[in-house]
Design goal:
By secondary structure, the protein is an alpha+beta fold. It is 32% helix and 16% strand. It has helices spanning 57-71, 82-98, 107-110, 127-135, 138-144, 201-209, 220-232, 243-249, and strands at 7-13, 79-80, 114-124, 151-159, 162-172. It has a five-stranded mixed β-sheet. β4 and β5 (162-172) form a beta hairpin. The protein is globular, with a radius of gyration of 17 Å. The chain starts with 6 loop residues before the first strand and ends with a helix.
Length: 250
């Protein structure tokens, strides 16, 4: 690719989103940006565990920065899980080998036991530059500080002077000590557009993503915030959250 500036993509599954950073752009599963090379997603509760086997300094930098950003705001740090690290490393390696930034299309099947799952991918000259780019992007920053996640796995590959990174976030469907794989609960997008007067968990998800108070009610304030987000994408900005807006948010 001929791009010299960093790029980023954020996504969430249970829903998914793609975020372009110089144009606009979380799939709880995809996002693409062309201003700074960065990738980020969300986080939730949990204590930090020991670094995973074979963790690199680059991966540790991303993990430390993410958790420092959370703890400095009184948000519980994310627990590192070896399973998520493995999934993230495989995606980072695929992107580096193809020299292409994209989300893992099999994220929701590669990650098990999830209630919420998300992915951030990006590349840049170094980990700190990518992280700073994330924090300078409202959408990516919102992912990093998201309280819906409790676990994270970060995989990074350095190739031809570029750091390629994938960050995989999860909130388990169930916490269990059993060796039996837990069936995951998929939270899907609403089957109709959210608009003035709508209520429920889907409305709360939109409000969380946009940094609003989590009331669960789609009032004028939420409508205006959605409208602003839509205009940032170059759309009309009517303020209703249909499939197109939802997929861009998550």
């Amino acid at each position: 690719m001929a791009h010299l500036s960093p790029r980023v993509t954020a996504s969430t599954a249970a829903t998914s989103v793609t975020v372009p950073i110089h144009a606009p752009a979380r799939q709880r599963v995809a996002a693409l940006a062309t201003a700074f090379a960065l990738v980020l997603a969300a986080l939730l509760t949990g204590a930090v565990t020991a670094r995973p086997a074979g963790a690199t300094n680059v991966e540790d930098t991303f993990t430390d920065r993410l958790n420092n950003a959370r703890s400095s705001r009184g948000i519980p740090q994310l627990t590192t899980r070896a399973h998520l690290v493995a999934v993230a490393r495989e995606q980072a390696a695929r992107m580096a080998s193809r020299n292409t930034l994209y989300h893992n299309p099999n994220l929701t099947s590669d990650v098990n036991n999830w209630r919420w799952v998300g992915e951030n991918v990006g590349y840049g000259p170094d980990a700190l530059t990518v992280h700073v780019a994330f924090m300078n992007s409202p959408a990516h920053k919102a992912n990093i500080l998201d309280r819906d996640y409790s676990e994270v796995g970060i995989g990074a590959v350095v190739s031809n002077g570029r750091v390629w990174v994938a960050e995989v976030f999860r909130r388990p469907a169930r916490i269990t000590t059993s060796s039996v794989r837990t069936v995951s609960t998929v939270a899907s997008r609403p089957d109709h557009a959210l608009r003035l007067g709508s209520r429920g968990a889907a409305v709360t998800r939109v409000q969380t993503r946009l940094g609003l108070s989590r009331t669960g009610y789609y009032g004028r304030y939420t409508q205006a915030a959605v409208s602003r987000f839509q205009r940032q994408q170059g759309w009309a900005g009517r303020g209703n959250c249909g499939p197109k807006t939802w997929s861009r948010l998550f």
